[in-house]
Write a structure and sequence with these properties.
By secondary structure, this protein is mostly helical. The chain has eight helices and no strands. It starts with a helix and ends in a 13-residue tail after the last helix.
Length: 158
Amino acid sequence: MRFLIRLDQNAAECSRILQIKENWTKKEFDRASASAGNHSANISCAADDLIGLKVMLTEKRYFVLRLLENPNLLEHERITDMLWAILHLTDELSSREDILSLPSTDLRHLEIDVKRAYQATVLLWTNYMYHLKTNYPYLFSLELRKNPFGGENEVIIR
């Protein structure tokens, strides 16, 4: 997700929304989730960004396919939507041999696919953080310190 955040020209807005705090209540998570769902991501990708994304996603493709085979995950529409968006982006990138020579029209098309995967991931991440807070506070504590949307981003407790 950190890779995708770098591509969002409006990432500061999303980071402001998702400065999750340890004492957040369900109401604050719901508000953040709604705001994240309405976040207007402005994805801007250079060819080098897409090459890096292609390498990373291609390495994870088999894992994503295995997740899509899991009937327990398929019951959750948001998870399924995110996985399909990621798999589609992976396939789009893998289908292009020379990303450096793509016309701007194709780059814009790929930015739309990146945006779809990014927005689905952000929304799911927000819900995941609430799930950790309510069910696994020790995991929530670590993930809170690793928040990809900013904050301290320091794992070591001082």
